Amino acid sequence: MNYLAHIYLSGDNEMVTLGNFMADGIKGKKYKKYPIDLQLGILLHREIDTFTDAHKTVRKSTKRLHKNYGHYSGVIVDILYDHFLAKNWDQYSNIPLDEYVENFYNSLEDNFEILPERIQRMTPYMISGNWLLSYATIEGIAKVLEGMNRRTKNKSKMNQAVDELIEFYKEFEAEFTIFFDELIAFSQKKLKTLSSQIKI
Q: What integer pLDDT is reported at residue 163 of this predicted model?
């Protein structure tokens, strides 16, 4: 899953949310140097990624893209799923999306010093470009995919995947909805399990 989903699936604990967000910048057992709630977020992020990568519905989405984008298909689906979460946000949260992401940006700025260097470099761009809110529109997703394509030095052609998003919009949205309901239940259960294990 992409940034918005990871943040949302963390629940209401600010430090768990930050840990989940910054987890890609922390390798191996280096998570153990962080406070417990940050560790929980990092471990939850890894569990979410494992669950997502193995899920049959997600694989159905990625298969649709594989011919044109190969191993980048999974990254693209993560981004597309964040679009459907943002677009349908009021089905998942009572807090308006613009308010939710503003609160998260404030949290990033307030806790900037604990973020890994890689995440620190990215954060100002995320906030200034308002990435999380932009996910709600096809235009916003197109910009994200363009940025990802540039990062691969135009090898991935990920910018072109907006065409598949438009062509198979209903299929992707239906797959996201089925999968995300299962992912919410998984994440809530896994967070409780990890919390009981790590705090012993």
A: 95
Q: Write the CB contacts of 35 (distance below 8 Å, at least 6 apart in sequence).
A: 15
Give the number of domains in the chain.
1
Range of the structural domain that residue 193 is part of: 3-198
Sequence-distant (≥ 6) Cβ neighbours of residue 149 within 8 angstroms: 156, 157, 158, 159
* Closest by Cα among 167, 19, 7, 30 to 101: 7
Helix ranges (DSSP H) in 23-168:
36-54, 56-69, 73-87, 97-110, 117-128, 131-134, 138-151, 161-167
Low-confidence ranges of the chain (pLDDT < 50): 200
Q: What is the pTM of this model?
A: 0.94
Which of 81, 78, 87, 181 lies closest to 133 in space, CA to CA?
Answer: 87
CA separation for the pair 189, 146 (Å, rounded):
35
Cα–Cα separations (whole angstroms), residue 152 to 36, 108, 113, 156: 35, 26, 28, 6
Cα separation, 45 vs 23, whole angstroms: 6
Q: What is the pLDDT of residue 128?
A: 94
Structure confidence by residue, pLDDT tens digits, 58-77: 999 999 999 999 999 999 99
